[in-house]
Design goal:
By secondary structure, the protein is an alpha+beta fold. About 60% of the residues lie in helices and about 10% in strands. The strands form two sheets. The chain has a six-stranded mixed β-sheet, with helices on one face. A hairpin with a 4-residue loop joins strand 6 and strand 7. Helix 8 packs antiparallel against helix 9. The longest helix is centred in the last third of the chain and has 16 residues. It is globular, with a radius of gyration of 22 Å. It binds zinc ion (2 copies). One zinc ion binds next to helix 18. GO terms for molecular function: RNA binding; zinc ion binding. Keywords: Repeat. It holds the Pfam family E_motif.
């Protein structure tokens, strides 16, 4: 049985559980696709159960299943388990090496990513384009400019791999994180092709973070020329224009959103506890524990305020065809609700894992950092763009991942 991409993750997981209960034996393809489902749901507990099953069934010796397992642990935020599963693999392919390097890179474990890359080369496995994306992103994370540029040259000269958009995106992201905006823009000019939406969004977000509004507005103009298809991008731009009180630009962006037939942000988060997936939407009271969760969050906000958290009021558009704006509170953002639910329903030291349909906003990102400090819990949030792992008041993304 192979689970379809368009089938909802929860549905697929339920079918798998039913299949298990009925006593039917899953095959190789079922195992690798159920790992993919667990990854997309950040369902670590279920993933671990399936892992145990693959050991019993003997399917773990299959390279595809084993690689899917490593990928599942990576995506569920458990880098230690991913690493262990990788070490235990009897044979490794380019894909399995690359998966593990990508995992280290995403978790901000730069040294381990680079060490593994060297091990891979020593093992005689030739890296490909994708491997280099992970290597560059690892360097970008740690702000290792010389190393990144060195690997970029090695890729071109020693391996004759032509740089693609993703390679440049990593380098641009690196310069942006370091606040070296001139170098980031210089790199854009150097590219043989037109930058994509992702690159311009990185530049917009970076310029905003570093307070360089002129460059930020320039990047925003370029981004708008590409007519992005993504609501999130427009919301990011709207917020930027609203905070600068550039109302003409606000209207322009609104008009474009209507022309592109883009609606409101489809924001929701989900969390998997035991065998159940719980989903949360902002201002949605349909979950049986909604009232308790909301109260708990308000209480939590007060507690983290005493640690130094300041809630950020944001200007947000109320409705699709309304020009009016209002101050809105971010206390009902879905990941806050999912985290609150998780904290209420899991034992004290248990890690919390949440998945979110769009990028985190800067306020929620800041809030979760404080919650991880206050509760000493490890909180992982996979949003539409990045993996955020919050431990002791810090996030693995280095604070450049909160786009909205
Ligand atoms: Zn938020
Ligand atoms: Zn983060």
């Amino acid at each position: 049985m192979i689970f379809q991409h368009n089938q909802s993750g929860t549905e697929a997981l339920n079918i798998f559980l039913k299949l298990n209960r009925s006593g039917m034996k899953p095959d190789l393809f079922t195992f690798s696709s159920i790992f993919t489902v667990c990854s997309s749901l950040v369902a670590l507990d279920q993933g671990e159960q399936v892992h145990a099953q693959t050991i019993k069934s003997g399917f773990l010796s299959d390279i595809v299943v084993a690689t899917a397992l490593v990928n599942m642990y990576n995506k569920c935020g458990s880098i230690e388990k991913a690493s262990k599963a990788f070490v235990e693999m009897s044979t490794r392919t380019l894909i399995s090496w690359t998966t593990m390097i990508a995992g280290f890179a995403q978790h901000g474990r730069t040294q381990q990513a680079l060490q593994l890359f060297e091990d891979m080369r020593i093992a005689g496995v030739r890296p490909n384009q994708v491997t280099f994306v992970s290597v560059l992103s690892a360097c970008s994370h740690a702000g290792m400019v010389n190393e990144a540029l060195g690997y970029f040259e090695t890729m071109k000269k020693d391996y004759r791999i032509k740089p693609v958009m993703d390679h440049y995106a990593c380098l641009i992201d690196m310069f942006v994180r370091l606040g070296r905006l001139d170098e980031a823009f210089a790199l854009v000019k150097k590219m043989d092709f037109e930058p994509n939406e992702f690159i311009w969004s990185t530049l917009v977000a970076g310029c905003r973070s570093h307070g360089n509004l002129d460059k930020g507005f320039y990047a925003a103009e370029q981004l708008l020329k590409l007519k992005p298809k993504d609501t999130e991008t427009y919301v990011m731009l709207l917020n930027m224009y609203i905070s600068a009180e550039r109302w003409k630009d606000v209207s322009k962006v609104r008009k474009m959103m209507i022309e592109e037939k883009l609606g409101k942000l489809n924001e929701w988060s989900w969390i998997c506890i035991k065998d159940k997936v719980h989903s949360f939407k902002p201002n949605d009271n349909s979950h049986p524990q909604s009232a308790d969760v909301q109260k708990f969050i308000e209480n939590l906000i007060d507690q983290v305020k005493s640690l130094g958290y300041k809630s950020e009021e944001r200007l947000e558009l109320t409705d699709e065809d309304e020009e009016a704006t209002l101050f809105s509170s971010t206390s009902s953002h879905s990941e806050k609700l999912a985290i609150g639910f998780g904290l209420l329903n899991t034992p004290n030291a248990a890690p919390i894992r949440v998945i979110k349909s769009i990028s985190m906003c800067r306020d929620c990102h800041n809030f979760v950092k404080f919650v991880s400090l206050l509760t000493s819990r490890e909180i992982t949030i996979r949003d539409s763009k990045r993996l955020h792992k919050f431990v002791n008041g810090k996030c693995s993304c280095g604070d450049f991942g909160a786009l909205l």
